Amino acid sequence: MILLKHIHHIAIICSDYEKSKQFYTEILGLQIVREVYREERKSYKLDLALNGNYCIELFSFPNPPARPSTPEAQGLRHLAFAVENLDQTVAFLESENIYVEPIRIDEFTQKRFTFIADPDRLPIEFYEV
């Protein structure tokens, strides 16, 4: 058996690098660890951290193919962030003109959560802890 320590990162390929960079850094507040342009690939790689913990690699590639990204589509289901105050999170997102799905209740934990979509329609969940 492999002894896993933790998830190292989540890789996301975006269609509009500047728009996604702005979303993940200015809207969600992730910190830039490193930004590199790889000439041979015509691709950016943006390393992002949350509270000092490296967590997301944001990539751009020329003409990436589209992929269905609804929460129930095959593949990565969604990216989830824990928040302390869901109402405050929703208010902020709506003030940034981001559509927020109606708040739901987790039937097992009774915790509240909701979803938005990133600029490429990747589902992002906010789960109140």
Automatic annotation (TrEMBL):
Enumerate the GO terms in the molecular function aspect: metal ion binding
Q: Which residues cross the membrane?
A: none
Which UniProt keyword terms apply here?
Metal-binding
Q: Which Pfam families match?
A: Glyoxalase
Q: Which domain of life is it from?
A: Bacteria
Is Cell membrane among the key words of this record?
Answer: no
Keyword field contains NADP: no
Residues in VOC domain copies: 6-129
Protein name, please?
VOC domain-containing protein
